[in-house]
Write a structure and sequence with these properties.
alpha/beta, Glutaredoxin, 5-stranded mixed β-sheet, 4 helices, 23% helix, globular
Length: 146
Amino acid sequence: MGIESASIAEFLPDIELPATLGGTPVQVRGSGGKTSVLFAIHGVRCGDCQEYIDQLARIAGGFEVWDAQLLVLAPAPLEEAARLRSFGTILADEDGRLAASGSAAVIVADRYGQIFHAASCGASHNLPSAREIEEWLKYLGTLCPE
């Protein structure tokens, strides 16, 4: 399942990708028992994708308040993915298991990995606003944990 073709109500795949800090594998589905925002970027040299990461950084406080995390999926080797700037965890997806080079997408999934919001933009960078992402975090953060 590529992130750009994910659908609402599906579950994130049960895979691990290496994080740029320390190379430690991170579980994508239900990672840390937190709501997750997954942002698959076009590539590490895409200025528009970096700008979107920066926009999400402006709502970093919302991530903390609503017990959420940002996972940036880079379709690149670990060393190249480490060039990105992000308050979230950067994961190297060199084989393109989730992030396909040339396509950007954002997914919001609950603590169990079920997708509640999915947006794919191809090369257009027409992604949901940081404000909209924050509203999803708030919604999922107030659901009953059962």
